[in-house]
Amino acid sequence: MPDLGKYAGAVLSAYGVSLLLLAALVGVSLLSARRAGRALRDAEARRRDG
């Protein structure tokens, strides 16, 4: 790891916040995909069952 000097705290916290936001984005995307899949299954079942 490079020597960050007096900026170490700012740089490491920026990395931490970025990773947290990335994890949140992945989580929201997964939840959205599950919700869309459930809605699609429900719509297909309604169409099939009439």
Sheet-strand content, in percent, reads under 5%
Helix % is over 70%
Main beta sheet: none
| Shape annotation | rod-shaped
- Over all CA atoms, what is the radius of gyration? 21 Å
Distance between the termini: 62 Å
| Low-pLDDT segments, ≥5 res | none
Q: What is the helix/strand order?
A: H
Membrane topology: Single-pass membrane protein
Pfam families: CcmD
Subcellular location: Cell inner membrane
Family: Belongs to the CcmD/CycX/HelD family.
Annotate the secondary structure layout.
Blueprint: H1 8-49
Describe this structure in words.
The protein is an all-alpha fold and 50 residues long. It contains one helix and no strands. One of its GO terms (biological process) is heme transport. Required for the export of heme to the periplasm for the biogenesis of c-type cytochromes. Belongs to the CcmD/CycX/HelD family. InterPro entries: Haem_export_protD_CcmD.
List keywords for this structure.
50 residues; mainly alpha; 1 helix; cell membrane; transmembrane helix; transport
Short summary:
It is found in: Cell inner membrane. By secondary structure, this protein is mainly α.
